[in-house]
Amino acid sequence: MAEAQSLLGANEKLSQEVLRPGADQIDQSRRFPRENIAALGKAGVLGLLVPAQFGGAGASLGEMSRVLDTQSQACASTAMVTLMHYCATAAIAAKGGDRLKQELLPSFARAGHLSTLAFSESGSGGHFYAPVSEVRQKRLSASKSFVTSAGEADSYVVSARKTGAAGPTESNLYLISKGASGLAAQGRFEGLGLAGNASAPMTLTDVFIDDETRLGSEGSGFQSMLEVVLPHFQIGVASVSVGIATAAFETIVARVGARKYEHVGGAALASIAPSRPKAAQAAHQPRPTMPSTPKAQCHE
Description:
about 300 residues, Butyryl-CoA Dehydrogenase, subunit A, domain 2, about 45% helix, alpha+beta, 9 strands, 3-stranded antiparallel sheet, elongated
């Protein structure tokens, strides 16, 4: 069992010594940060939200927030990959069957298994909770519009309407392994930022669906997405955003302090109006903090 506080310390150390040095190269080359994820997995950071009974830290949402904030200040692409892994972890821990959790969660905690979500579909746009694909005769064909860690993750939490669903909220969540026949990533990420997070479309073509890998009872996918996944995603993406903003602010402050002007006797940009009052005002803005939150529960 890993202790949450020790993992917070390990995450801080890895963020400074492993994530930060390679961040620029990862972003410029749009390369998936495999070495960062491997280091985080080896240290147990990927198992932060895994319940203690399966070898993880059983950490809270607040502790997850701290991890993601710290990572995103060093390498935002890595932080986004970690966030989506934590969302998948939460869904499996809360809704997975006993056999699935026994077989899988220890590898999240100790072996660096990387998971992610595959929810969004072009047919429903930003309404990620409303898949248009449907399981038919234990087979699923779907087009997921963007998936973080596409083609890189070891498993995917996939949404789909249940067989015979009357509407998009009658859905299920399934865990699909990377090697499943018919599962494929399409292209690579071409977005403006977070260039290494490997967000890309994925297709499922006649993929076999096993009820043993369903997360939760039949038809409970919509409820699981709103009650389990969404809180982790919202707090997590906010934490990543705060970390990015913090890093940007610190970079700007360092720049206006280091930039000197010969025509005013070598004075720094920060000391020249109007930069001075603006820099001072920004420096004294209180930084948002994450309130204490209860630990995630491992039950349906």
